[in-house]
C-alpha cells in the first residue's frame, strides 16, 4: 500500500468538512453580511464543485494539474469576493474560510513542497489583498498554511523516494534469488555432467580425450558465467522446476520425484522425506531413518533431497573411491535435520573459499543456498583426515 494513499483519503474528508464549515459560518453570520446573495451563489458553486470532484482526490494520477489550477482559482476567487459580500468587515473569515487550505494541501501531495510553497504564496497574497493590509491574524493564518503544506510536501517527497528505493531493492533481491536458483540448477546438472565427461574422456584417451577437453573448456566457461552475476531476462531462459531433483553422481534427473507433478498441489502436498532419501542408499551410502513418516511440503522435501544429493556428489568427487557416506534423518518437533557424513580425507583449510573463487559453488549454492530459501541452515564441519559432515536443518513452521 502506498504511503500517500491515506493522505489523499484524509484530504478528501477534510474538503467535505471544510465546505460544510464554510457554509455553516456563512449561515450563522448571514444577517451581518452587507450583500449576502453573491456569497450564497459562491458557496453553492463551491459545494457542488467539492462533491463533484471527490474522485479526483483518489490518487496523484487522478489529481491532474488542470484540476488543481481550477481548484485554487476557485478558492482565490472566494477570498477576493469576500469584501463584496462583507463590505463592512463584520464577519471576519473569508467566504471559503478553511476550505482554501485544501487546494494548497493537494498541491503538496501532488508535486511536493515546492508546489505547496507556490500555492501558499498565492493564497497569502489573496488574503492580503482582501484585507488591504498585513494584519497579525492574516500573517498567522497564511504562515500556518504555508508551514503545514510545505512539511506535508516534503514528507511526500521522502516517502516516494523511499518507496522507489524499496522497489529497487526488492527487484534486486528477486533477481539475485533467481540467479542463485538458476546457478544451483546448472551446477546440479550441466556442470556435473560436463565434469564427468571430462574425467571419462581423459581416462579413455583418443577421440574421447578430445571430447573431454572440449567439455572441460565449456565447464570452465559456464562456471565463469554463473559466478559473474549475469541474470537472464525473464522468458529468455527456462529452468527446471524446484521439484525436479538432480540425482547424485552428477546425473541430472536421476533423483527422487517429489510428488509426481509440478503443480501447486504437488508442491504443497505433504511428502515423506524418508522415501526421497532412501533412493540414495547403496553399497557406499548408509541411510538411517526414523520409524515414522517425516512429512514436509513437496517442494521443501524436494529441495532438501536435492541438497543431500549435492552433498553426496561432493563425497563422490572429493572423498575418494573408497569413501563411505552415512545419511541420518531426524524428525524433531520444530525441524527436520539431515546429516551427511563421510570418512574421506576432509576439506583442507581455505579450499571452500578457493573453490568459490573458481566458480565452483556446490556447497554455497546447491546446499547452503537451498537451505536459506527454505528458511533453514546448513552447517559444514570438516576435520583433515577424519572426514566431513554436513548438517542441514529445515524448520517445519512457515513451509
Automatic annotation (TrEMBL):
GO cellular component, one term: membrane
Region feature (Disordered): 231-266
Keywords: Kinase, Membrane, Transferase, Transmembrane, Transmembrane helix, Two-component regulatory system
Source species, domain of life: Bacteria
MF (Gene Ontology): phosphorelay sensor kinase activity; protein dimerization activity
Domain Histidine kinase/HSP90-like ATPase span(s) in chain numbering: 303-397
Protein's UniProt keywords contain Methyltransferase: no
Stored NCBIfam families: HK_morpho_MacS
Domain DUF5931 span(s) in chain numbering: 1-167
Biased composition (Gly residues): 250-263
InterPro entries, sorted: DUF5931 (IPR045975), HATPase_C_sf (IPR036890), HATPase_dom (IPR003594), Sensor_HK_TwoCompSys (IPR050482), Sig_transdc_His_kin_sub3_dim/P (IPR011712)
Source organism: Streptomyces qinglanensis
Ranges annotated as spanning the membrane: 12-30, 36-54, 66-85, 105-126, 138-156
Biased composition (Low complexity): 239-249
Protein name: Signal transduction histidine kinase
Domain Signal transduction histidine kinase subgroup 3 dimerisation and phosphoacceptor: from-to ranges: 178-225
Pfam families tied to this protein: DUF5931, HATPase_c, HisKA_3
Amino acid at each position: 500500500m502506498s504511503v500517500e494513499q491515506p493522505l489523499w483519503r484524509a484530504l478528501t474528508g477534510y474538503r467535505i468538512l471544510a465546505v460544510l464549515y464554510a457554509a455553516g459560518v456563512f449561515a450563522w453570520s448571514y444577517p451581518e453580511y452587507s450583500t449576502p446573495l453573491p456569497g450564497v451563489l459562491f458557496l453553492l458553486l463551491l459545494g457542488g464543485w467539492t462533491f463533484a470532484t471527490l474522485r479526483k482526490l483518489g490518487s496523484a494520477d487522478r489529481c491532474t494539474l488542470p484540476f488543481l489550477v481550477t481548484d485554487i482559482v476557485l478558492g482565490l476567487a472566494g477570498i477576493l469576493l469576500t469584501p463584496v459580500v462583507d463590505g463592512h468587515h463584520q464577519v471576519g473569515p473569508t467566504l471559503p474560510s478553511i476550505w482554501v487550505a485544501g487546494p494548497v494541501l493537494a498541491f503538496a501531495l501532488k508535486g511536493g513542497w515546492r508546489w505547496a510553497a507556490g500555492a501558499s504564496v498565492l493564497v497569502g497574497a489573496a488574503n492580503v489583498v482582501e484585507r488591504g493590509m498585513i494584519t497579525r491574524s492574516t500573517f498567522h493564518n497564511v504562515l500556518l498554511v504555508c508551514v503545514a503544506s510545505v512539511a506535508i510536501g516534503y514528507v511526500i517527497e521522502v516517502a516516494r523516494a523511499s518507496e522507489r528505493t524499496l522497489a529497487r531493492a526488492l527487484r534486486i533481491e528477486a533477481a539475485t534469488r533467481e540467479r542463485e536458483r538458476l546457478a544451483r540448477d546448472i551446477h546440479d546438472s550441466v556442470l556435473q555432467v560436463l565434469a564427468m565427461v571430462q574425467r571419462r574422456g581423459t581416462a579413455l584417451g583418443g577421440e574421447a580425450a578430445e571430447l573431454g577437453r572440449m567439455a572441460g573448456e565449456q565447464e570452465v566457461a559456464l562456471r565463469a558465467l554463473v559466478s559473474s552475476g549475469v541474470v537472464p531476462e525473464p522468458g529468455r531462459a527456462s529452468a527446471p522446476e524446484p521439484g525436479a531433483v538432480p540425482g547424485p553422481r552428477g546425473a541430472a534427473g536421476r533423483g527422487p520425484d517429489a510428488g509426481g507433478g509440478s503443480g501447486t498441489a504437488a508442491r504443497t502436498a505433504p511428502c515423506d522425506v524418508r522415501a526421497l532419501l532412501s533412493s540414495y542408499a547403496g553399497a557406499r551410502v548408509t541411510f538411517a531413518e526414523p520409524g515414522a513418516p517425516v512429512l514436509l511440503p513437496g517442494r521443501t522435501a524436494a529441495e532438501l533431497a536435492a541438497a543431500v544429493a549435492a552433498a553426496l556428489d561432493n563425497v563422490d568427487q572429493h572423498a575418494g573411491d573408497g569413501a563411505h557416506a552415512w545419511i541420518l534423518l531426524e524428525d524433531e518437533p520444530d525441524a527436520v535435520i539431515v546429516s551427511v557424513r563421510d570418512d574421506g580425507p576432509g576439506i583442507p583449510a581455505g579450499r571452500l573459499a578457493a573453490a568459490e573463487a573458481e566458480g565452483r559453488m556446490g556447497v554455497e549454492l546447491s546446499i547452503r543456498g537451498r537451505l536459506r530459501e527454505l528458511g533453514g541452515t546448513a552447517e559444514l564441519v570438516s576435520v583433515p583426515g577424519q572426514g566431513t559432515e554436513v548438517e542441514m536443518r529445515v524448520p517445519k513452521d512457515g513451509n
